[in-house]
Amino acid sequence: MKVSVYMVRCSDGSYYTGLTKRDPEERVGEHNAGVVDGYAHSRRPVELVFSETFERIIDAIARERQIKGWSRRKKEALIRYDYEALPDLASRAKKRLD
After folding, report:
1. Could you tell me which residues are beta bridge partners of residue 47?
2. Buried (b) or exposed (e) across 50-60, using 16+ Cβ within 10 A?
3. What are the C-alpha distances in Å from 89 to residues 12, 36, 56, 60, 79?
4. Range of the domain at 47
5. What is the pLDDT, as a whole number, of residue 1?
6. Does residue 45 belong to any structural domain of this protein?
């Protein structure tokens, strides 16, 4: 079973990260149609900005939790596929520099 982790940019500029067994574009359509209650419902329309697909749901859940714990700057680096910047944007790395 394939599971996707997706991130959308909401109309207020915030980000929402979720999981779906469907195509992420289809899920975004559900968000925009108001079918999905929750964080993004009052922040429509939303735009898909990132997705990754996993073979195992446990891996997708772990990735979703990881991304949800990230700062806005780190999420934006991921959206840009700037993987080299991610370690420097870690909150623990930032605290060491202060």
Report:
1. 9
2. bbbebeeeeeb
3. 23, 31, 27, 22, 14
4. 3-69
5. 85
6. yes
